[in-house]
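Entry type: protein chain
Record version: 2
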Amino acid sequence: MQRRRLLQGAVVTVAAALVPASARAVAPPGAVADYPTALWAPAHSANYTVPSHPSERRIDRVVIHVTQQLFTPTIGIFGDPAKQVSAHYVVRSGDGHVAQCVREEDVAWHAGSWEVNTRSIGIEHEGWVDRPEFFTDVMYRRSALLTADICARHGIPKDRAHIIGHHEVPGSDHTDPGALWDWERYLRLVNLP
């Protein structure tokens, strides 16, 4: 019996070691990811704002980003207090895996505009704007499910006026998600029944 427990413990330890440290983080007691299938991978508290009255925060749009980086390093950037950046979610290209880095009730620093940050949810997508191989079918589908869920929970219309690219944020100097992002496909997936 004791040998069995030791072996079970070893298996758990080995399995945990195979998961990147940034993905092993767990939500603080009482906190859970807002999106049920998301892995909790918290940004450093120096990289987002906790509003004094979270229940008064009104979300009216989703901002779509492309990381210009890989999935795990992106989570690492959000975990670095010197970076002063975060997003609520990151979607992995290869399998559509979703990580949540900032609670939706908190203000992620993703849009480059305080006004837009305070009223939006930011979703980063692994990849580069000029490398379409990162825009996989599974990434589009899983991201669209996430966006549809966010829209349903916050009463956001599922249209291009309310689901915008980072480049559409007033004053933005960013180009993401870029010309290769398939908005027609994405909005069709977001609006599936």
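Comment: The helical segments are 2-18, 71-78, 114-118, 137-154, 183-190.
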